């Protein structure tokens, strides 16, 4: 029989030995590390899927905006038609009214049916039966009045049309991470329409379907987009207003 002094405190059958405890801790650490790694992988994949879904949403909404505004362009209103820029003039906000009194040469204040909400500095086009003139507003439009920065040079009858003419630009811009962005600018205010792109390209077709870069011949504009999250290339073709 062993005496009390011969019994080790770590070999009691009712307890756990130090070796078993260390093995259990090591096993637990390994399981925890694997679990954390799995969680990180799941979170990474979820973040990638979220970015891909957000990119698809941006693509859909961005292309809808482009199609709606490009349809407002006419051949005579196109200023630039290059692979990386499409610039045209159009009444984006559908702001239009008519004069309620005749307008004579030298006049700079127009009596109109409704000029409220027309911003200062906006370009407006006045059209009579014979010709049109473009002018800039010297101040924000009022309910029954529009003030021009320069006097009118022709005579216009009561009921002559007056509408805003916005300068609309779609162009590409290289981001810091070397990805492309499709930008939209209306009257000097620029914003990112679609980001994180591999490639963006504009092309133009004439009335016979042939490629052209002459603004005076453009009848259709085509935009091709490739996302950074997908190798799939999206193509949209928009016919201009006749």
- Average of pLDDT: 86
Strand order of the largest sheet: 1-2-9-10-11-12-13
Q: What class, by secondary structure content?
A: alpha+beta
Instruction: List how many beta strands DSSP finds.
Output: 13
Shape: elongated
Uncertain regions spanning at least 5 consecutive residues:
none
Q: Estimate nothing, just give the exact number of structural domains.
A: 2
What kind of sheet is the major sheet?
A: 7 strands, antiparallel
Strand percentage, roughly?
25-35%
Task: Report the radius of gyration as a whole number of Å.
Answer: 34 Å
Helical proportion? 10-25%
Task: Note the gap between the termini.
Answer: 111 Å
- Give the oligomeric state of the chains in this entry, treating copies of one chain as homo and distinct chains as hetero: single chain
Q: Counting H and I runs of at least 4 residues, what is the number of helices?
A: 1
Q: Key features?
A:
alpha+beta, 34% strand, 7-stranded antiparallel β-sheet, Thrombin, subunit H
């Amino acid at each position: 029989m062993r005496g009390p002094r011969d019994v080790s405190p770590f070999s009691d059958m009712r307890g756990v030995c130090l070796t078993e405890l260390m093995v259990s801790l090591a096993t637990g650490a390994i399981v925890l590390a694997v679990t954390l790694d799995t969680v990180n992988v799941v979170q990474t994949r979820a973040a990638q899927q979220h970015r891909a879904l957000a990119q698809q949403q941006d693509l859909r909404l961005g292309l809808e905006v482009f199609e709606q505004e490009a349809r407002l362009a006419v051949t005579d209103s196109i200023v630039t038609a290059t692979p990386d820029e499409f610039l045209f003039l159009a009444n984006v906000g559908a702001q239009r009214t008519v004069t309620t009194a005749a307008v004579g040469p030298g006049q700079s204040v127009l009596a109109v049916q409704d000029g409220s909400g027309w911003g200062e500095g906006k370009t407006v086009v006045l059209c009579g039966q014979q010709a049109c003139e473009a002018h800039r507003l010297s101040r924000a439009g009022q309910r029954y009045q529009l003030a021009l920065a320069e006097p009118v040079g022709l005579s216009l009858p009561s009921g002559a049309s007056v509408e805003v003419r916005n300068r609309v630009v779609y162009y590409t811009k290289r981001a810091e991470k070397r990805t492309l962005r499709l930008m939209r600018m209306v009257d000097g205010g620029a914003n990112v329409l679609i980001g994180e792109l591999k490639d963006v390209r504009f092309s133009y077709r004439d009335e016979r379907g042939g490629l052209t870069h002459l603004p005076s011949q453009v009848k259709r504009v085509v935009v091709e987009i490739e996302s950074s999250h997908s190798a799939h290339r999206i193509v949209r073709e928009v016919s201009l207003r006749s």
